[in-house]
Amino acid sequence: MSLSPMMKQYKQIKNEYPDTILMFRLGDFYEMFFDDAVTVSRELDLTLTGRACGMGERAPMCGVPHHAVQTYIARLLKKGYKVAICEQMQDPADVVKGIVDRSVTRIITGGTITDTDSLSDDKNNYLMSLYLDDNGVGAVWTDITTSETYNHYIPCPIKVKLNDLLMRIKPAEIICNSKMLEESVELSAVKYGSVCNMSQYDDEKFDYETAKRTLTGIIDERELKAMSKTPACVCAEGALVAYVQNMQFRKDVNIGATENYESEVYMDIDANTAKTLELVESQSRKRGTTLRDVINKTCTPMGDRLLQKWILRPLCVKSKIEERLDAVDALYCDTILRERLRASLSNIKDVIRISANLALGEIKPKDVLALNSSLHAVPDIKQSLQNASATLLKSIDGEIDQMSELSDLIDRAIAVNDSSGSKDGENYIIKSEYDAKLDEYRALVKNSRDIIAKMEAEEREKTHIKNLRISYNRLFGYFIEVPRQYDSQVPDYYQRRQTVANAERYCTDELKSLEYKVLNAADLAEKREKELYLQTLAILREHCADFNKFGKAVAQLDCLVALATVAKSNGYCKPEISSDSEVTISEGRHPVAELLPSDEIFVPNSTALNDTDSKIMLITGPNMAGKSLYMRQVALITVLAHIGSFVPAKHARIGLVDKVFTRVGASDDISTGRSTFMVEMSEVSVILENATDKSLILLDEIGRGTSTYDGLSIAWSVIEYLAQKLSAKVLFSTHFHELTELEGTINGLKNYKFTAKENGGGIKFIRKIMRGSANKSFGIEVSALAGLPQSVLERAKQLLAQLVNADIAHKANDVRQLSLFDNVSRYDEIIRIIKELDINEITPRTALDILSDLKEKTE
Questions:
Q1: Longest Cα–Cα distance in the chain
Q2: How confident is the model at residue 426 (pLDDT cuts 50, 70, 90)?
């Protein structure tokens, strides 16, 4: 026995695409057979059936309806599969003998999917290409639905920096050369599933000369010349383009000008810092707990995606930041303008992705209508911006072109989804009354009997044969039947077709034409509608570049309006951007924490950092007092200012920061076998290696993962390194109170503290940062809040008293092991605090807190 003809066809096509799930079109379904059917039925929970295939056993089979195929494809892609779409290349009705010709028209992968319904509106879908040679790795990634493309070169050693890049970008798909695939096993981001697996692509496509030929005509010649300075990136992008061409079965690809990801224009925020600060992803997985959640008041998908880029890549060029700030300020001050723009923006859909699908020829009628909705918003936006004074708003206005002729075309041509665009209520793509020929065919489909009856009446009137009638049979089609007694009245243009008893049957050219139209009206209407739709798309396709430019301008405007909206509703102030390195914040607030439900009123706190006498803030105080929150607050306010946003503070003067680093929180990494202390030291190492004089560094509890003296020594050494080697701005939180005695011995270091008060055997947190060092850790009291048994707490107090007495005795014997910094007295610290006080700025409540704290230091 042998396979049936159709199964032979399936097997032949499947053999050409062995690493894909082959979706084989059969009528109204896409079917999968054999191993593919078993896999898909398992992964998508579909019913597994069987089909006769010419062999003894039935072939395993499962299928999905063609109208819902994108949903199933998207689910398979998320599970890491590739899908090959095999279409019927002929109408089965036209095939007289043999089987329908079929062919794969496209391969869909995680990074090449373009269906807008299957993609997230709020994030990009990147395809990344990596090329590793002996010197380093070239990385290029693109979102083919938006054309955004970036490149980055990482010299050897690549492990740490490539891991960080992968965690930042989180591409949907990664292709690479064979050498890179071998090295990928050493990348923890890939090894432990933090990002998708890499798949090897043809090494020949990564060849430098081959890649250059591939890119010729795809990217600008000047851009290719600039990229040639990093050959590895040329190799990576050439392979990427070839891969997309191969998947989409077309030479043209939607890849824009390549931007160098490592640029002095943007602040550098590594993946760990973005995670720690919860810029766009929440560590608790709760909604409303990221910076993006708070400031994301965008109205469009394009603005949503762009705002994430702004947050993860803030500007660090003063003029560009101030340009954004001026635009936000103009929108902040003009409520009518701001709300009018929000109303207009709410009508704009994902124009950038729609234009990409338009260019690919994969646009749906509903997307054309979405595009039209967006175009209708243009006049209102243009009118709103016509008197804008801010430079950036003027620039955006100039990027938005009036496209009324295109919206008029869609208005006239495309019917809306609810069928209200057609008088007869049919679900048409092309509107009624747009094309006379199409209207005629539709009328024939719906009113063929009435049309024949009308023709019959007209022939009776012309011939005066009252018994004339028009009839139909399958053999002769439509004919005019005339009783024999009226033979003398039959016109000359009647053509005899058949003689029957007592009558003659005739035909006319007009009836033949009408017969063809009536019998083929449905097909003719469908063909004409498709023709008109494609004509409309061809006209729109000529303006893809205009739509893309419009979408980018709208995204930028949307972000600016969103920042102005959140600034107004949350009481933010416009920061002053300075060219020096200071970070001065008056009554700053944590943008997320201040909005979260709490029994406590959020307490604002100020900050004063510079690169001379106050470059390191050494912060002490009990757990839960607010040290980590405060440090994150300073970083978030700094990031917001560099985005071009107003900030949660009474006043802020922010110097330019090139990088933000964090080492906050305690966690081990079981996947890599690294302890909490090892993770901590690795992160500190990266910071010390990459920080500059313009960096902002947050260090929390350095050295706590090892013994007291080891940890204290490491923390001390790190502080010295930061103070002596760099002028970076540092917030250093610690429980090693001995470190507070470094003030006065290390230039630029100042002590600050969050304190607490004992209250009826419990503890009350003040939440206010103050100059000076903490007098007590309150560890046992905080443990009580955590719910430790009372017996454990009482025993801890007894042990603490014994240890303190032992330490005092130890010091009396001049062992002084715990007092490493005896060169600065407590009274010197009190004097410095008093001298720095600004009497005019202190509230009575704060003055009492300071006085109480100073009194404790004298006891």
A1: 144
A2: low
